[in-house]
Amino acid sequence: MTNHEKILVISDIHGALCGASLMEEALRVQEAQKILCLGDILYHGPRNDVPEDYAPKKVIGIMNRYKDIIIAVRGNCEAEVDQMVLEFPCMADANMLYLFGKKVCMSHGHIYSPANIPSCDVFLYGHTHLPAAEKQNGIVIGNPGSASLPKNGHPRSYGILDENGFRVMTSDHQEYMRVSY
Known about the structure:
Layout: E1 7-10, H1 17-30, E2 34-37, H2 56-65, E3 70-72, H3 80-85, E4 94-99, E5 102-107, E6 122-124, E7 132-136, E8 139-143, E9 157-162, E10 165-170, E11 175-180
Parallel strand pairs: 1-2, 2-3, 5-6, 6-8
Antiparallel strand pairs: 1-9, 4-5, 7-8, 9-10, 10-11
């Protein structure tokens, strides 16, 4: 990645059209070049209420439109059938990438988490539906929150990873949290 490039980080869409639409809008507004999807794409899971705008077939269409720029990992709600309809790999527990001169680990958060971080410079996770942007023992830790089912009064949100660090952005594209390298 070169300077001035942005990577959209999205998590916990859970089959909600509003979550996939936020991803698509944020990609355009932020002029991001890639999408890191941290899992829980299509299914809402047994512990979550069904999202108001639950429309996994429409979410599939939106996600597949961006198959060439999405790097995804498996959430705890992904199933083998999800991989059958999504046209990009989404069943890895984690991915290691080198971005902006940093070793970035992306995982959903149910296997690797802030309490169990692999060796990396940046750790991105979802799962909790709670946004985070902090440093722990010199490691940048980012959670974009949930694009559709935020918890604890937080807004729907997504993340941006760039040469400066990680930012959590609200659904109206305002900065909510930030951490620098």
